[in-house]
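Please check this:
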Amino acid sequence: MNKKKIIITTVVLAGVVFATLIAAEKKIANSTPEKQIYVAAKDIRQGEFLKASDFIIEEKPISNVTGDMAKSLNGITSKYATQNIYKEEPLNKNTIADKNDSSKMFLKPGEREFSIPLTKLDNDAFAGTLRRGDIVDISHTGVAVQGDPTPKTELTGRKVRVLGAVDSQGKFLEPGDKNVLAAAVMFAGSEDAFIKTSNQMFSGSFKIAKCPVYSESTNNN
């Protein structure tokens, strides 16, 4: 075999080896272990109850799958979204809750959660008796300023829902805790009520008025 043939043969063999290595690398890349998870098939709003049809299965590299991603939809019909879940977002166990779990604060679509300490309330003894599900109006009275001796009072939130009263340890008070006063009250209201309360928290005080409870028959009259 002359020198020219040896060079040609060497080049051909090198090409074969290179091609083999490339194919092997692709095979290794394509054989990366994957795991099935569920992702949202559509946008799901906070407070919306879930259905199996809301999700589809996707294969993800196992390195990208975390322990809080849902691999099963068992019991999904008793769950609701605790925050907005967007299309193609993996279903995360931390963004859903069971409707029968009283320790979770159920927020309806469009509601925001906020709290008011008793120290900011005019009548803290009354506020401490509020319980989950009560509907209230919240008003805020500012402080007197020079040139305006009459503090301004404005409605902060109308028909705001009480999520629960909490004690000094942050524990929600149950209906049976009749004689236990709260350290703060948690509410669910509109975006506007959330923003107003946040801005008003630094001065003045809040007053809570419990809304009358009307039966369905009364409302129809």
Summary: DSSP finds four helices and nine strands in the chain.
